[in-house]
Automatic annotation (TrEMBL):
Binding residue positions for Fe cation 2: 51, 94, 130
Gene behind the chain: bfr
Organism: Neisseria zalophi
Protein's GO biological process: intracellular iron ion homeostasis; iron ion transport
GO molecular function annotation: ferric iron binding; ferroxidase activity; heme binding
Biological role stated in the UniProt entry: Iron-storage protein.
Domain Ferritin-like diiron: 1-145
GO CC, alphabetical: cytosol
Protein name per the record: Bacterioferritin
Lineage of origin: Bacteria, Pseudomonadati, Pseudomonadota, Betaproteobacteria, Neisseriales
Cofactor: heme b
Sorted UniProt keywords: Heme, Iron, Iron storage, Metal-binding
Family membership noted in the UniProt record: Belongs to the bacterioferritin family.
Binding residues annotated for Fe cation 1, in chain numbering: 51
Binding site for heme b: 52
Length: 157
């Protein structure tokens, strides 16, 4: 089934952001683990897997639309040097992804590709949940202080 070129372009744009995010979260997970922050590192590791599955869904959709998934155009990773910076960097990446998802959903609506729109809407929901989690972590650091926050470990939902 031939897909609209603009939809495929938007899907590839979001794919690129996911690929960067996978690497960013994976590296942050390993950095945190190396620092002895096992629980927080495990959370970011699991999040990298969630992002990988989302990337796989987009790849499959692009292929179904007879497009070529672009795994070459990768953006910049935001790497934190402290736990606070890691949370801030990942929040910045989630906000970047949110903007791209909203734009892509609008293109899918315009081109009447409702299956791609639904896929991107699910990814947007996941993005918003993770953004909320990251914002909560920032609030906890502000309320508790970074030392107490790090001693308490990651705050799972």
């Amino acid at each position: 089934m031939q897909g609209d070129r603009m939809v495929i372009r938007e899907l590839n744009k979001n794919l690129g952001l996911l690929l960067v995010t996978i690497n960013q979260y994976f590296l942050h997970a390993r950095i945190l683990k190396n620092w002895g922050l096992e629980e927080l590192g495990e959370y970011f590791f699991k999040q990298s897997i969630v992002e990988m599955k989302a990337a796989d869904d987009i790849i499959e959709r692009v292929l179904l639309l007879e497009g070529l998934p672009n795994l070459q155009e990768l953006g910049k990773l935001f790497i934190g040097e402290t736990a606070e910076e890691i949370i801030s960097c990942d929040l910045a990446k989630e906000r970047e992804k949110h903007t791209a998802l909203v734009e892509a959903i609008a293109v899918c609506e315009e081109k009447q590709d409702y299956v791609s729109r639904d896929l991107l809407s699910k990814l947007k929901d996941t993005n918003e949940e993770h953004t909320d989690w990251l914002e909560t972590q920032q609030e906890l650091v502000a309320a508790m202080g970074v030392a107490n926050y790090l001693q308490s470990g990651a705050q799972e939902d």
